[in-house]
Amino acid sequence: MMKILLALLPILLASCFLFKDYKKTEFVYNRNGQSATMPLIVPKGYVKQETTDTAGISLQTYYYPGGAMLYTAYLADTTYELQPFNKAIHQPLFHRLGGLVYKGQAENELFFREIRQGNYRFGYRDVPSINERYFDSATNYASLQKR
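The chain above was modelled as a monomer; its predicted structure follows.
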């Protein structure tokens, strides 16, 4: 029994550090007039802003030093674009759980990404390459949580 516990200890300790660069939070939004929540992980060091408008857009935005921005949104109107970009240049990839993924690099050499799954949008913009993996992980995590 003691050997099993000792063997499991490194796994348990490692799992505590998987999200050390992230903060766990929740996206609270209105879906068809009902309040809903979705668990998120976001890179640390942000200032958060929450917006809900009369058009049915619930948006949670995380602003970072240097201008990077991460967002999660629920849109009643899926034609509304949070992050417009040239679709002739930036062709989407299909997300493995459905939806589309747009990703690219702007002229300023900063990265952007948006996952579009039904009424949900998970994305970022103005992210330097050194932080790209953290923001990719945050958007991937969010896309797995949608309900």
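The chain has one domain: 22-145.
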